[in-house]
Predict the structure.
Amino acid sequence: MYKHFVKRLLDIILSTIGIVVLALPMLIVAIMIKIDSPGPVLFKQRRIGLHKREFVILKFRSMPVSAPSNVATHQLDVNAIQMSKFQKAIRKLSIDELPQLYNIWLGQLSCCGPRPALYNQANLVAERDKYGANDVKPGLTGWAQINGRDELEIEVKAKLDGEYTAALNAGYFKGFAMDCCCFIGTVLSVIRSDGVVEGGTGEMKKQEELKEVSIEGDVVHK
């Protein structure tokens, strides 16, 4: 009942409210994007949706047009991409994700669910298959996003997506409770910019490993 009807009804209501309330702010962001750098306002990317069907996700463009498209963030050398202060700001505050309200309204996304993988992220899709996470509608935010976001490794992210899927399949109460946790947790995470690591998936662990190597090197040197 919740998974197949109530959840979709809530998606329609919330996305409609979001589109109406945020119409003017999104228009202002669109104008600022055009002023800030040449190129289109929206960035379109192929993603994997429910039952591994592809769809096109919408975002505000937060990188120069010269940046590679259809490439996962963790595969980009973001430090080599000359982003403006405005572009960095809308990425950090997740403002670039707002056009996905239209994806939710169209039924391609849900407000909460596993974040949709890129069409070429076969490793993430395969890991999610282990937990049945490809058989629930992806979301604007999810359980993995409030438990690490960019710094999570693929295996950990897929496991958390599996926990979300299990809760959603467990019935009305657990599914609704999980979505509420994801929604509230996302608001708090965005405010604190938790887990936003330029470089993407697993980047936090990479930085920690480099730090450990550096410390060990100092000890050996001494």
User: Anything to note?
Assistant: Helices lie at 2-21, 23-36, 85-92, 100-106, 122-129, 154-169, 172-192, 203-221. The chain has one domain: 2-221. Residues 196-200 have pLDDT under 50 and may be disordered. The first helix runs from residue 2 to 21.
